[in-house]
């Protein structure tokens, strides 16, 4: 995890994935294309909590949990439609990130976090993609949805 990845997590926990939805059919097509390249992992957790009542639903766990691409895309689009984030909320989350970096509780140092956050602010706090290092290490494939939309385990 690099500073960019931590900021992406903060952004997602505040705004969900609304910046990715232009059209539900297009979103479903992208999901199906991505899902075709994801190896299903038996025993993988379906979701991880990211804060703000949101979770990342892992594509590698869909089949085991009987979730169809259409269901996931519906939850994703509904969540994006109801997204209620604010710049103020994002800034509060970034302050938490700063504090964690100062305390040495992140895999990167305070100076790296501060540099990245200064550059990020100068860009106007845009949505982000994962860093190349994070993508190579974890191959992230998920959708952000409201936790309450998931079926009971």
What is this structure, in a nutshell?
The protein has 153 residues and is mainly α.
Description of the structure:
By secondary structure, the chain is mainly α. It has one domain (3-148). 49% of the residues lie in helices and 10% in strands. The chain has 6 helices and 3 strands. The chain has helices at 3-15, 24-36, 69-81, 87-102, 110-122, 132-138, and strands spanning 47-51, 54-58, 142-146. Strands 1-2-3 form a 3-stranded antiparallel sheet. A hairpin with a 2-residue loop joins strand 1 and strand 2. The mean pLDDT is 93.
Characteristic terms for this protein:
globular, three-stranded antiparallel β-sheet, 49% helix, 153 residues, mainly alpha
Assembly state of the chains shown = single chain
Based on secondary structure, the structural category is: mainly alpha
Helix residue percentage: 40-55%
Helices and strands, in order, run as HHEEHHHHE
Strand content: 5-15%
Largest sheet: 3 strands, antiparallel
Query: Tally of extended strands?
Result: 3
Domain tally: 1
